[in-house]
Specification:
Number of strands: 22
Number of helices: 5
Helix content: 10-25%
Largest sheet: 9 strands, mixed
Strand content: 35-45%
Length: about 280
């Protein structure tokens, strides 16, 4: 099976939130994102690429124990960007949920007011990545916070304008069908696996654009109506021909693509929605 185009990336993540005003205040304060608001939704960026689209559904409840978003991951350009943002959140006492060294990257984790998982990270240079077979060595080690903060130069800062969506990590019901869909149907390359718990896939030799895990429980079901949950993630293909080819492969796998504004919507075997769009 032909791999997905190596230029493929991920784009804006679309989320339901309970209170748009609350979310915009938090995203402005914690990350420094700018919002363009329009009739119950807001498009967020750091001044460059679009990162998030938030849809208000009053009373929406946080999700636990279901498929959907584990986290979306915002990639900053340089190590000092991550260091200055960490210094900022420490200064502002913004709660974090984790700090990890993944060998290929340094990552900081937190949650927004609706419980949506967020990773802010920087990549190490590709020449420093270790390869295992056809994959990339990734792991979870404690982040050397003192060493990272030394790269801040004593400054604090919000996320820079060149911040972009780096990857999306999803809860799925079962890794087997997830691998069959993302690897065998869409054509992403498998780069790493954690037993029957987690799977990582990418285009163009990246460490991962898509993560999938069963940490919400094997056989987990989609979030119920009224949840503050993932609406869809975005896969950005280099051109319309590649988008249509990938959509055709998804159709062959039983995904039933639907044309909507902005692209073609498909769902993985766990009902996680993906918008196939063109750069």
């Amino acid at each position: 099976m032909a791999s997905i185009a190596p230029q493929t990336t991920v784009g804006p993540v679309h989320l339901t939130v309970a209170d748009l005003d609350r979310s915009l205040r938090w995203y402005g304060h914690a990350l420094g994102l700018n919002a363009a608001r329009d009739d119950g939704l807001a498009r967020l960026s750091a001044g460059g690429d679009g990162l998030l689209v938030l849809y208000e559904e009053p009373g929406a409840r946080p999700v636990q124990g279901h498929t959907g978003l584990y986290h979306y991951a915002l990639l900053v350009p340089e190590r000092h960007d991550l260091a200055r943002w960490l210094a900022y959140v420490a200064q502002e006492r913004i709660p974090l949920t984790g700090l990890s060294d993944h060998f290929v990257s340094e990552a900081i984790y937190l949650r927004d007011p609706d419980g949506h998982g967020i990773e802010i990270y920087r990549d190490r240079p590709r020449e420093q990545w270790e390869h295992v077979g056809r994959g990339v060595r990734m792991g979870v080690e404690p982040l050397d916070v003192e060493d990272l903060l030394s790269a801040s130069g004593g400054d604090t800062a919000l996320l820079p304008a060149r911040t972009r969506m780096g990857h999306v990590h999803l809860h799925v019901a079962d890794l087997g069908p997830a691998a069959a869909f993302y690897r065998d149907a869409l054509g992403f390359d498998e780069t790493a696996r954690l037993g029957d718990q987690a799977l990582f896939l990418s285009a163009g030799g990246y460490h991962h654009h898509i993560g999938a895990n069963t940490w919400a429980g094997h056989g987990a079901t989609p979030p119920p109506p009224g949840s503050a949950a993932l609406r869809h993630a975005t896969i950005v293909l280099p051109d319309a021909a590649e988008r249509d080819r990938v959509a055709g492969r998804a159709a062959d796998a039983g995904a039933e693509p639907v044309e909507i504004a902005g692209g073609i919507l498909v769902r993985d075997p766990s009902e996680n929605a993906l918008l196939l769009t063109v750069a």
